[in-house]
């Protein structure tokens, strides 16, 4: 797999075409409605931008998790569904472009809105996966995918131990290690943290590796993610994301730990600035700036705005995470490592993992409701 094949603009083209069709079929209705998007996603960002270019403003965005409001590209107000949709407002028109259309529609219907009159599906990721799926290849099973990722993680662990590099299990991987001693039963990916300087050293070590490719921001051509990932080159998959069709493989994500400052307000300001810069870069993607312009901006972001001294300040965190201010963590959480079991092997977690998990998830030992125990990923891997 060549890195020049990482990204395609298919996603943008489809969203724009779909919105054009929606506008043509519902011109009068849209003109007299308050446009509300359900779901803080990259699709929402792209759609808001496209509508704005066509002179159509967005009234608001609703999401069950309003803490993600900072992810929005545009300066649009965000509410929980019941906050905006009650009392009933017949002028509201709700746009949905996520994999959870049925669940979201049912939630809106319970608040008194009619699916036919008040809801428009402008993008269907599942249909896109079918349309741009890979054919004549053997599908990677869920168990094979998990084994591949554990093998990648084991390889990273080996390299880190040989070269004095640090890594920590992160997010659902860490939660899985603590609560389940392995994968969360309804999850299927692995995430880790690493210091920035160690990420660059790992990238150099993995150059020309026969089995794995490390996709690196600003270094891998056509790779527009803000954080690196290590991909098993024996596999391939399409990911509907960011807002592109990403050519990748079974992989694990590596998030950089960065210093955020000694004062909480300083840390929040630095987090806000980083999120704003990510919005700007995503806007460059959605407005089809050239790949070189985008990657130059990402490189500038990494080299000038990410402070590697994550243990030297009181606060540190991952500025590319989905949890906003909950990602601002006291650095002593990561001062030491602790060995944790994950699927019959042991890997490093942050020494104060309890404080980390409470910050990110709250009461992390409590299972979510059964209807929430689903994977958020909509990709399928194949052997090549």
Question: If you had to describe this structure to a student in words, what would you say it looks like?
Answer:
This protein is an alpha/beta fold and 384 residues long. Helices cover 38% and strands 20% of the residues. The chain is built from 13 helices and 18 strands. It has helices at 10-25, 27-31, 42-53, 81-85, 101-110, 115-118, 125-131, 142-163, 171-179, 196-205, 264-286, 291-305, 353-361, and strands spanning 7-8, 34-38, 60-62, 78-79, 92-96, 119-121, 168-169, 191-195, 212-215, 229-232, 235-241, 244-248, 251-261, 315-317, 329-330, 337-342, 345-350, 381-383. Strands 7, 8, 9, 10, 13, 14 and 15 form a seven-stranded mixed beta sheet that branches. It has a five-stranded parallel beta sheet with strand order 4-3-2-5-6. A four-stranded antiparallel beta sheet has the order 1-12-11-18. Helix 1 (10-25) packs across helix 3 and helix 11 (264-286) packs antiparallel against helix 12. The protein starts with 6 loop residues before the first strand and ends with a strand. The model has no long low-confidence stretch (mean pLDDT 91).
Task: Give descriptors for this structure.
seven-stranded mixed beta sheet, five-stranded parallel beta sheet, 13 helices, 20% strand
